[in-house]
Write a structure and sequence with these properties.
mainly alpha, Transferase(Phosphotransferase), domain 1, SRPK, transferase, nucleotide-binding, protein serine/threonine kinase activity
């Protein structure tokens, strides 16, 4: 998820193991910044932010308050500056199309924990060692 913070803060945050786990399981990135950029006239950054909100939910205002570039993308109320319609989608539905059915529930539960928009909300790797996703292996 380093792209989240990079986009808003223009710094790198090295705690993106949730994204790497998703990529290992599916063979693709969770977000595609080029998706519908031409069709909808979006920049890659706008497309990326829309996808993040659709899959992971809205950005918490506290996170936006500390991001120096947030004003470029978000209003004072925390909504995106671009006029768009959101189509929320669950990780489970995304995973159903990409991994074995018997792995979907446990993998989605694990990714729900690690794929937090706010890096401060993400568990550390050592805190996850007893997560059912690992202990079921």
């Amino acid at each position: 998820m380093s792209n989240t913070v990079s986009l808003l803060k223009r710094t790198e945050y090295h705690s993106d193991y949730g994204m790497r786990i998703y990529e290992v399981f599916t063979g693709e990135s969770l977000f595609d910044p080029q998706f519908q950029t031409l069709d909808l006239g979006l920049t890659p950054e706008e497309s990326h932010l829309i996808q993040m909100i659709e899959i992971l939910g809205p950005f918490h205002p506290d996170m936006l308050d500390v991001c120096p570039n947030a004003h470029q993308w978000f209003t004072e109320t925390g909504t995106l500056r671009i006029d768009t319609t959101y189509y929320p989608v669950s990780l489970k539905s995304i995973l159903h199309a990409r991994i074995a059915a018997e792995d979907v529930a446990a993998t989605a539960a694990f990714l729900d924990v690690v794929l937090q928009l706010d890096p401060k909300e993400r568990p550390r790797a050592r805190d996850l060692i007893n997560h059912p996703w690992f202990t079921a292996c």
